[in-house]
Amino acid sequence: MKYFATLLANDVAAMDLSLEISQNILTTNNVWMMLSTALVFIMHLGFAGVEAGFGQAKNTVNILFKNTVTPIIGIISYAAIGFYLMYPGFETPGWLSFDFAGWNMFWFSPASADVSSAYADGGYTYWTDFLFQAMFAATAATIVSGAIAERVKLGAYLVFTLFFVGIVYPLIGSWKWGGGALDAMGFYDFAGSTLVHSVGGWGALAGVILVGPRIGKYVNGKIVEKPGASVPLAVIGVFLLWLGWFGFNGGSVLSADPGLVSFVLVTTSLAACAGGLGGFLTAYFAFKRLDLGMVLNGILAGLVAITAGTDVINPGSAVLVGLIGGVLVVLSAILLDKFHLDDVVGAVSVHLTCGVWGTLAVGIFSTNPEHTLLTQLIGVAICGVTAFTAAFVIFFVLKKTVGIRVSEEHERTGLDSHEHGIRGYTIVYDE
Predict the structure, then answer these.
(1) Is residue 247 part of a domain?
(2) Strand, helix or coil at 405?
(3) 250, 265 contact by CB (below 8 A)
(4) Which of 25, 47, 83, 313 could be joined to 142 by an S-S link, Cβ 3.0–4.6 Å?
């Protein structure tokens, strides 16, 4: 009898130890995921810095206003509908579904949310899951902001953000990350070269086409440079984005797995460096000058490009992926100017062009033989057509109803004084 009692006590102790270990693993994983969430959140400050730095001084407040309100609207709209559209729990992999039970639980029965180690294999809690994904969602709209800066109506942009983040982005995301049709097909996008960046880039391209170029940007077949307000601010913005990318890609491991997280951060950094080098060299040969702007966008190009396959592409290949991204971002910017497509910060070149390249690169360089170039190409095409069409329709409807472009007078004199009543750069001397 004493023997059986000892065995029972040992079993209970083992169970208690197992539960303690599971809880400790959950805590560790969740802390990393919350830190990653914070890093992705700080990317909004990076985007604001880049856009305000590359934009003209007379529009600084307007740019900062857009970048401040974007995550506000983005997170709320994602909480309202996007989260349950993106992760609907498909009974069979498909193209459209909605998690009504999750929506009801989130808003009216939060106590029933699963925050145990059983959720997400002990990687994080339900609430961390939502917030991490919400940061991604808001990023897609921020990409659009930079491309159409300095001439878009603030109200029209905010309405676009509401629909794009609340419906378009999560719908496309559900096809892969929500277990939908693209996931079943074998399409791979680890952290969002296509699902976040090129989706935002397609939205930016639609906006650039319909809003049109800034006044005086293209004159008699020549490109007229419009100097940005603050090169230092743009540099700070890019380094903040690089910092945030450690959470963007590292957090997409969805746990604190020491081996995989560290590997992802290495490939992410190498691609960023190679992208900056590619932008530097390509711009030098193209423009015969040391173009800081192209180095900065080259860094971002490398980061965007590696995002799809940062966990399955070796460091050596990551350098090549980033380098090609840096080359492409310069060539893309040149091509857009030839077609008189005015992109203030180079968002289309960085996020669309390099997002497409990075996703296709998975089919070329992935260490997983199941990843094929054809499947990646099909996924890119489906997501691209959907994102561009949806964004074009939203902007077109807004253009035909409320209008999407500010008046010529406001654009020439600056949006700050007309829409906000203050300037971004003001020095006052007391007499």
Answers:
(1) yes
(2) strand
(3) yes
(4) 47
Structure tokens at 362: 């998975």
Cβ-based burial of 18 (10 A; exposed 0-12, middle 13-18, buried ≥19): exposed
pTM over 0.70: yes
Q: Is the pLDDT of residue 7 over 80?
A: no
Q: What is the pLDDT of residue 19?
A: 63
CATH at 156: 1.10.3430.10
Q: Nearest 5°: phi and psi at 320?
A: -65, -45
Alpha-carbon distance 285 to 288, whole Å?
5
179 Cβ contact partners less than 8 Å away, ≥ 6 residues apart: 89, 90, 93
Our count of domains for the chain comes to 1
pLDDT digits (tens, 9 = 90+) for 88-146: 989 889 999 999 999 999 999 998 888 888 788 888 899 999 999 999 998 888 999 99
Q: Cα separation of 312 and 191, whole Å?
A: 12
Q: Which domain holds residue 98?
A: 16-420
pLDDT digit string, tens, across residues 46-73: 999 999 999 999 999 999 999 999 999 9
> In 95-220, at which residue ranges do the beta strands (DSSP E only) sit?
218-219
Rounded-to-integer distance, Cα 245 and Cα 266, Å: 12
- Please name the residues in contact with 404: beta carbons below 8 A apart, sequence gap of 6 or more: 152, 153, 156, 157, 207, 210, 211, 395, 398
